[in-house]
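Researcher: Next entry in the queue.
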Amino acid sequence: MTDDTVPPAEDAAPQPAAAAPAACPRCAKPLDLCVCEGITPIETRLEVLVLQHPQEQDVELGSARLLTLGLARGRLKVGLSWPNLAKALGREADPRRWAVLYMGSGDDAVATQPGTLRLVDRKGQTVEDPTVLADLEGIILLDGSWSQAKALWWRNAWLLKLRRLIVHPDFVSAYGNLRREPRRESVSTLEAGAFALAKLEGDDTLVERLRAPFIALVARYRAVRGNRPPKAAANRPAGEGSRKPDWRGRKRRPR
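Model: Structure for this entry, 255 residues:
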């Protein structure tokens, strides 16, 4: 029950604005949610670049920064557009040797078996040539709600030159009921990247190792904040809620 009583004007002293909670300079999480102590960068053959929409900087439960902190060759870039892959990476690179985790359509998701990663062409058809994946230098993930990820896709035309990967993880996201998802198989950016790397590197332990800090974050959030989902970030447009891109390719409907 709330108390709507308004005190007399002479008794209502101005209240100072609440100070923002201190944040960890490494992971940008509030200090009571920081799990940096458990993060040791993992060496991988492939590079990982996460392009994060400026309005998706989810301070409390966002996973993108934890992913790149957990990788010796991981990098996070926040922005809306870059002229080309080289500008996004900060060095010269051949787009044909890079892949993007592609959202595609619902049909693409259905065609991808659980526990697998699939390389597709622009028409969504499976590419069977194994030498393509063996020649990859790195992968790109788009971090944001469905509309934000779609904006990143269309504002960066050079992404069309990259290989396209569709992943279908065979585990349930550590988010649990803290994030509303359209399908049980939907996972976080970190989990999608970990799964893709594990398949591409031939090292299934990468999933568990990269997910560990994220699982710790969710557990700490529940212990400190409870089981209620975090409020939408102040810089996120109204109406987007906490929807995230579905890395298996299904478009998410507004709720």
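Model: Residues 205-225 form the longest helix (21 residues).
Researcher: Noted, moving on.
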